[in-house]
What we know:
By secondary structure, the protein is α+β, with helices and mostly antiparallel strands. The protein has 3 domains: about 10-95, Rossmann fold (3-Layer(aba) Sandwich); about 125-185, Dna Ligase, domain 1 (2-Layer Sandwich); about 190-355, ATP-grasp fold, B domain (D-amino Acid Aminotransferase, Chain A, domain 1, 2-Layer Sandwich). It has helices at about 20-30, 60-70, 85-90, 100-105, 110-115, 130-140, 170-175, 230-250, 280-285, 290-300, 325-330; strands at about 10-15, 35-40, 50-55, 75, 125-130, 145-150, 160, 180-185, 190-200, 205, 210-215, 220-225, 250-260, 265-270, 310-320, 335-340, 350-355. Strands 9, 10, 11, 12, 13, 14, 15, 16 and 17 form a 9-stranded antiparallel sheet that branches. A 4-stranded parallel sheet has the order 3-2-1-4, sandwiched between helices. A 4-stranded antiparallel sheet has the order 5-8-6-7, with helices on both faces. The longest helix has 18 residues, at about 230-250. Bound molecules: adenosine monophosphate (AMP). Adenosine monophosphate binds next to strand 14.
Amino acid sequence: MSHAPLEPGSTIGILGGGQLGRMLATAGAELGFDVHVFDPEPECPAARVATRAWAAPWNDAGAVEGFAARCDAVTFEFENVPVETVAIASRVSQLRPGARSLELTQDRVVEKSFINEAGINTVPFAPVSDLTELHEAVAMIGLPAVLKTRRFGYDGKGQAWIRAHTDIETAWKAIGEQPAILEGAARFVRELSVVAARGLDGTVKAYPMGENVHGDGILKTTTAPAPRLTGQTQARALEIADAIGGGLDHVGVFAVELFELETGELLVNEIAPRVHNTGHWTQDGCACSQFEQHMRAVAGWPLGDAAPHSSAVMTNLIGHDADDWAALSADPGVRLHLYGKRQTRDGRKMGHVNRLGPLA
Ligand code: AMP
């Protein structure tokens, strides 16, 4: 793999054209790169800001190959890109981050095992492949517990809580009777996340942790830097980011979602090997946003400064929340970001706002 930095004017490809791809493409353009986007949906949010959009199914090997051949480096904006697509991209171009970051985070059992092997705690868990194994897992882990599909879960989808033994069969049916993981319930006081980047040279820089509030499985707000953080918790979060970034041999931004327990202990919930919704506050709270940071890493450039100049509260605009755009755009205390999605649907992320304040 070449470690020479990509020069301005080089082409960076993004697999996936949602809002994350759109914000990455914009950040890439600001650094002087051409950005090509590959997504099955021609009208996807990133296609309309990219230098070139490639619209083809993920399994169209010829199209993926043609796209990758035009790119000096290829990255991705979501972790469920099919492994075969990624394999083509890594053969034809430089894939950053590499396939390892995807392989270790696409499957919740593989991911949690990797985290534990890196010396970091998670909730207790057990793989489940049928109803008998689910009963055994409940006996081992206890209740309440949450049953999740091993793969392709996002925003709380593919999950069912089991609070009593009578819920077991319903939960198994609810997740579609597919390979799953049973997790013990974390008794957390709050949810935090650390968004960090690892450069091509192995340097890791982390943004201050954010405190996250979810509703119906979807992120509602991130407050950053998270209030009431002890030096010990911050130091542990950095250790976790270092161990995970290094263990994945990652290049680019990644996020680690954490549960903070009453004792101050941090458990890792999951890893996103990409830019993350809980890092959107960095667009307005830091000189170098997570999107610029990712494109810097992919290009083999030095990482930017991850220190904040302001505190921020990021609020997602979900579904019809975005209908308030006119009032939000008139509020001088608000930085409005809209994703240009053609259709508003309940539960769909349409944009977000950042409200800035002084650093504590
Ligand atoms: P996930 O898709 O794993 O990020 O889960 C979505 C949300 O469900 C998390 O942000 C938590 O609020 C909650 N959750 C997931 N897993 C657990 C768990 N093992 N214990 C407690 N809450 C959980």
